[in-house]
């Protein structure tokens, strides 16, 4: 079994074949691809998944800018009922060649890193960039981590979320305080 899995959809760009003016890349996932995306994201379903990117050469690598749209269904964290969600995300990512051993900075050399800039470039090895991983990562980060139906809460199910601590450490604390175990 190899450690590299096949991409769910084709979004590979060859840097050495990228025109100077760039090119457009459009993804509109079919039914099988949407089912594979849902499985990868561990959600109920993906009803729609599309992206349009403008890919331009940049300093030996590339810059991908565009937009991702998706309609997905996740299970509610409260009742496990299906919860629909629409995702629309802007994409702007830079991929640059990894520094070579011979190009490594000299020991003691100063290296400038802008800590205010959250957009550190991704490093690539070889002439290809698979943008499918970027699109799946964008979707994964945009999904609601705690999906719920409108008006749903743990209190509505009769589950207490009060301040009273429970569990083994709370019982130990009561024993230590001399209150004993009142269960």
Automatic annotation (TrEMBL):
Source domain of life: Bacteria
Name of the protein: DUF177 domain-containing protein
């Amino acid at each position: 079994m190899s450690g590299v899995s096949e991409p769910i959809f084709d979004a590979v760009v060859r840097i050495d074949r990228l025109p100077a003016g760039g090119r457009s890349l459009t993804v509109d996932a079919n039914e099988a691809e949407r089912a594979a995306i849902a499985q990868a994201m561990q959600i109920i379903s993906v009803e729609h998944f599309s992206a349009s990117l403008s890919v331009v050469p940049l300093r030996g690598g590339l810059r991908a800018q565009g937009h991702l749209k998706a309609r997905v269904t996740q299970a509610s964290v409260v009742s496990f009922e299906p919860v629909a969600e629409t995702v629309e995300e802007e994409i702007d990512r830079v991929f640059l060649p990894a520094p070579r051993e011979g190009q490594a900075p000299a020991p003691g050399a100063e290296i400038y890193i802008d800590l205010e800039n959250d957009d550190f470039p991704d490093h690539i090895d070889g002439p290809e960039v698979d943008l499918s991983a970027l699109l799946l990562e964008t979707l994964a980060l945009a999904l609601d981590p705690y999906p719920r139906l409108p008006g749903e809460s743990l209190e509505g199910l009769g589950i207490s979320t009060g301040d009273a601590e429970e569990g083994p450490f709370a019982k130990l604390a009561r024993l230590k305080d001399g209150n004993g175990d009142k269960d």
